[in-house]
# Entry
Amino acid sequence: MTATSTARRAGLQRHGAWWEPARLGEPAAAWAALAGAEPAPPVFGASGFALAPVAAGPVLSASATVVGEITVAGHRWSLLASTGTPEKPATPEWQAAVASIRLGLSLWLRRQAVGRLRKRAVEGTALIHRQLVRADLAGAATEQAVAESLLDGVATQPGARAALRRASRRLTAADRTVLRLFGASGFLSDGPGQVAYLSELMADAYLESSAEDRRGEPDDRVG
# Structure
């Protein structure tokens, strides 16, 4: 068994079936592994919003309405707003799974950046060897490592929701750092920036608390 296959198996055991497609940059497949491929009522976060791939055909009730759409990697997603009491509110286990998907997508994003930087050179030197670039990559890797440590068994721990928010904000910081390394291509509609944007929508919908829940918490959200 290779080190890569061992790491993949460990990731599946720690994070669930959605881990592998997430780390391969396939958010729709990761979401299907979490939510199931069959149409079902969407799961809403404390924010009052939900995400669902359009192909999954979410079952909308009178308490939900579509407020936006985004296309990522060839798949359309709907952003839904709750207009009443959601049929399926997010549980800590669901939130932990969403955070794991975000972690997998973040690791994929960093790998894409590394691959690109190895191929691009200035004055005969690959960008990957530039000190500031390496510092940004190291900073992003640190944020990801901290996020992963926060996610380890978090769903069953006291204070799970607060820990998940902290982990999610670390991932947002890492992704925004990495995106800068892509230059303008990172923000194209068919570029890696769309995956990062979708990941942030996941965070906004499921991993940020309501304003009432945030009372008394330090505001460490990424600006």
